[in-house]
Amino acid sequence: MNFNLTLIGQMISFGVFVWFTMTYVWTPIVKALSDRKAKIAEGLAAAERGHQEKSLGEQRAQEVLNTAKAQATEILSQAQKRAGEIVEESKVDARSEGQRLIAAAQAEIERETNRAREELREKVATLALAAAEKILKKEIDVRAHQSLVDDFARQI
Amino acid sequence: MSTAETLTAQGYIQHHLTNLTLGVHPEHGLGFAHNAQGAAEMGFWAINVDTMFFSILLGWLFVRFFRGVAEKASAGIPGPAQNFAEWIVEFIDENVRGSFTGKNPLVAPLALTIFVWVFMMNLMDLIPVDLLPWLLGQSMAIFGADPHHVFLRVVPTTDPNTTFALALVVFGMVLYYSFKMKGVGGFLGELSLQPFGVWGMPANLILEGISLLSKPVSLALRLFGNMYAGEMIFILIALMFGGGWVLGLTAGALQFVWAVFHILIITLQAFIFMVLTVVYLDMAHQTHH
Q1: For the CA atoms of chain A, what is the radius of gyration?
Q2: Scanning every residue of chain A, which has its alpha carbon at the shortest distance from the alpha carbon of B44?
Q3: Is A11 within 8 Å of B108 when comparing Cβ atoms?
Q4: Ranges of chain A with pLDDT below 70
Q5: Pick from B59, B161, B162: which is nearest to A17 by CB?
Q6: CB-based contact A32 B75, cutoff 8 Å
Q7: Is the bond into B202 cis (omega within 30 degrees of 0)?
Q8: Which end of chain B is least crowded, N or C, by CB within 10 Å?
């Protein structure tokens, strides 16, 4: 065990190494460590928040979906109801229109019949007149008369 | 060892336990000591070049690696180097938090330096004992030096100069913080007024003085003793390599087993040195007893 200058030299180098470590090594590494710790905590919190937001959003989406479904059902039933109504209405309309048309046609037929009857009556009158004329011109013979009247009657 | 035929076992061991000492010899002038006695004759003003070289080299590697990491340290995804450095830093930080109750930004970096530096210096013990001394001897022989007089001890912690230097710095800090935190009166009171009260002052002083002085001495001697003994066993095992192939194979197996066991010892010694330093500084920071 020789003690010599090495003792002093080692003390100095030890001191220098400690100083260097303290000044240039320890602080940055420990800072990086604590920074990372903070970063990880932040990331975890953000993930947690995201998770919550996601479930919240899902819930909201489900609600919106449910409302939309209900609305769609309502609209569908309304439309069906309305369609039924329209069909009913048009059925009624069609029936009344048909009746109207039938009535009009019948009236027309009536009118035509009447007109024809009038015409016929006029014609009969004319014919009767003509026939009377002829009868008056000729002397009246019963047989002849009879055939004439029959003829006349057939013309009606 | 290849030159074993010219050496006795005693000479071989002696050779391994001698530092490469540079100094002024009273008779030979400035130069490297030729043997342990020569180194002793140089007195205090000589320097163990091997101890200084390896400890500073290892310390430099340590600060370089950690500084490299610290420069690029980011809160993002760490690379392998940063991961490794952070692992050590967290380990130290945890230990310091566990045993140091005061607030002092010096203690944790000090603990880191002690742990890693001492561990690296101890780690040199796992390099085969003859490798580096043999390499140096052969390369010095090129310059005409006698390889038998080129000494090299690669494990700085087997040099008491190193362990006592560390312990004295720690002791200095203990004294500094004791005076600073407790005040001169408080510290002196702690030394002289307990455990027996005012009337037992001489006994108190002796007890507390011994307990105070034993701190650096035990720190230094524990590390030195463990490493010295470990190295000695490696040297003894290495001696067996010269005794034929049966002994040689046994020595190989023994060396492996001892090296594996020694991994535990070197880590443990570095750890103990660090923890005790932190504990002593913690005691120095406590203002009440």
Answers
A1: 61
A2: A4
A3: no
A4: 1, 138-145
A5: B59
A6: yes
A7: no
A8: C
